[in-house]
Amino acid sequence: MILETAEKALERHELCNHCLGRLFARLGKGTNEERGKAIRFSLNMERSARGLNPIEEPEECGLCHNVFEKIPKLAKFMENAADDLEFETFLVGSRFPEEIVEGEKALWEELGVETGEPINREFNRELGKAFGRISGKEASTSPDVVFIVEPFSEKIEIQINPVYVYGRYRKLVRGIPQTPLPGFDESVASIICRAFSRAFEGKCVFKGAGREDVDVRMLGSGRPFVVEVKRPRRRKVELGRIAEEINASGKVEVLNLHFVSPKEAEEVLTKNHRKEYLALVLVEEGISPEEAENVARKLSGLKIHQRTPWRVRKARADKVRVKRVYKAEARWIDERHFELRLVTDGGLYIKELVSGDKGRTKPSVTELLGKGAWCERLDVLNILDE
Ligand SMILES: [Zn+2]
After folding, report:
1. Same domain, residue pair 226 and 176
2. What's the gap in Å between 286 CA and the centre of ligand 1?
3. Which of 299, 305, 301 is nearest to 362 (CA)?
């Protein structure tokens, strides 16, 4: 059956051993070139027994135009193109002219072949092997870089995959937004990204797991974040050095930096962590230690219905979110101030939990107290995710 099909193919078309072997790629082991050679050899013995001339490999293959002979040269070009790039793993893709791809499909149809392999699959694999041999790099399906090769124009394009680093940040001072904001020279993101961009020689994108306001500090074990460095030219970077550089700012500190996969990065950002806050509450009408204690006792375990705060209504969808206060403790300070230490669901707006936001947050400290309350200062003490 195989020899019959092969003979029909070779009588009608000029095929190299690669293209002949590829028609039967799913049968047996070895490379397509070895397969093609063996089939041609057996076929020619049989033809000789029938008194027929052998069908030798043509000068130029009518299907692939001897593209496989270009592999050593293209592997060298790839090495040059990636000259100044740090990477360990790679993947090869290729763009073949429509006419070759279609020509191959037509050939399968004509011969009734169901064991074939598309030409670019063989080409990518063989070019990958050749590049691996000369560069010492490893082929991988989740690679650092992807080479896209146009074998005839010899154009080589390199896609550099991003690196992801997980960390936690502490914001030690007030007056810095998490991400760039008009009127502010720097942000948590800009301080962190400056160090990452420099070390990895790529474009850094900062993503925090939630955010705090400009005037809120982030303390304790810090807020989880992920940076994605796009098109990094360096990958072997000492994260400890980056941490040192950021921490020297005196404004933002990072902890626990480590490399993560894209999937792990995604999980960090979508997980909704419980948070621990410390709020300084102002009550203009005055407050007694007993009243402060009472409010904290009532808040503990409460479900809060919070409509999107007035001040962020343009940036967030206007809807009512139901969030829980798990723990609340009060510490009386003076006739007009007390501190509230809270553990709540992530995404509960604390300033509005205190003020009531003109009835948009229910219940609130204002409502429970029966007096206007105002959050004068707020710190995130901890993000509870372990
Ligand atoms: Zn060929």
Report:
1. yes
2. 89
3. 305
CA of 228 to the centre of ligand 1 (A): 42
Cα distances (angstroms) measured from residue 10 to each of 122, 148, 311, 331: 20, 31, 76, 91
Residue 28 backbone dihedrals phi, psi, to 5 degrees: 70, -175
DSSP 3-state of 193: helix
What separation in Å is there between the alpha carbon of 33 and the centre of ligand 1? Answer: 10
169 in the same domain as 139: no
Same domain, 110 and 10: yes
Residue identified by tokens 């005196």 is 250
Gap from CA of 375 to ligand 1 centroid (Å): 75
Report the DSSP beta bridge partners of residue 145: 90, 160
Residue 260 CB contacts under 8 Å (≥ 6 apart), including other chains: 164, 165, 166, 226, 268
Ion ligand 1 residues within 5 Å by Cβ: 16, 18-19, 61, 63-64
Q: Residue 141: exposed, middle, or buried by beta-carbon count in 10 A (0-12, 13-18, 19+)?
A: exposed
Q: What contacts 297, CB < 8 A, 6 or more positions away?
A: 328
Domain boundary at 160, 193, 223, which?
160
Give yes or no for a contact between 253 and 172, defined as CB atoms under 8 angstroms apart.
yes
Summarised one tens digit per residue, pLDDT across range 87-117 is 999 999 999 999 999 999 999 999 999 999 9
Helix (H) / strand (E) containing 346: none
Q: Are residues 285 and 306 in the same domain?
A: yes
pTM value?
0.78
Q: State in Å: Cα 68 to ligand 1 middle.
A: 7
- 3-state SS, 168-182, equals EEEECCCCCCCCCCC
Catalytic residue ranges: 213
What is the Cα–Cα distance from 142 to 22, expressed in whole angstroms? 26
Confidence of residue 386 (pLDDT cuts 50, 70, 90): low
Would you call 316 exposed, middle or buried from its count of C-beta atoms within 10 A (0-12, 13-18, 19+)? exposed
Half-sphere exposure of 7 (CA within 13 A, CB side): 15
